[in-house]
Amino acid sequence: MSSAQHSHSTYIGRGVSVSIANLTRRFGDRAVLRELSLSVGPGEFVAVLGPSGCGKSTLLRLIAGLDEPDAGRVAIDDNPWPIAYVFQDPCLMPWRTVLQNVALPLELTGVPRAARHRAAARLLATVGLADAAERFPGQLSGGMRMRVSLARALITEPRLLLLDEPFAALDALTRQHLDNHLQDLFLEHRMTVLFVTHSISEAVFLADRVIVMSGAGGSLPADRRIELDRPRRDGVQTTVEFAREAGNLSRLLTEGSHTAL
After folding, report:
1. What is the residue range of 16's domain?
2. Residue 78 neighbours by CB distance under 10 Å
3. Max alpha carbon distance in the chain (Å)?
4. Model confidence, pTM
5. Which of 52, 207, 245, 248 is most buried as measured by Cβ atoms within 10 A of its Cβ?
6. Alpha carbon of 163 to those of 10, 67, 204, 216, 242: distances in Å?
7. SS3 154
8. Does residue 177 share a domain with residue 74?
9. Same domain, 118 and 128
């Protein structure tokens, strides 16, 4: 197997494992998640796909510890390894430069200025923004701001990266560009990733596995492994293999939505 045609198993090993058992979360009388169980292996990239309101974002918040379940548990091995969370809004501080925004997590933990700025500059170069270090968020495009957000998330060297529809508000070309960046970052850092998306094509392009959630109390009607070699590049979307994977997921999503009715 050439270096350009690794299977996903080549990359498994650096991230943490996540184990979710009988997870339930209610809001009033409505169970957004009901007795959901799921395991994610170390170094896996798992996309979470499903209709609006099925509990995808709630699941990420529970994994991150930003919310508490009504029942069940989330176990992450090797705690307290850093967990990074990327939202749809980049959440950058407009009065800080790009470099200062990326360096902020290290600043908050007391890392000396020179060291944190070196780390931030290295990550900005990785996401193609070395020349934007001294600019302010208001001077950047939406796609550039999201790349800053990704760089900031990676600066603590997380072993678990949670992304909640980070590219949903961007145009198609920018979104594909950032999907490429995210795949490259994943292959370089080899953390465990959970990525929420509404896009079947994006899920197939990025993920090792795709979890399909239905609207029926956050149930999991399908858990499908994507059998495409990495790295995946622009053009893979036109292949028969990609179309087959996307078609299978489309069918599973339709079946899941019927289950929820």
Report:
1. 8-81+159-260
2. 11
3. 56
4. 0.87
5. 207
6. 23, 16, 16, 23, 23
7. helix
8. yes
9. yes
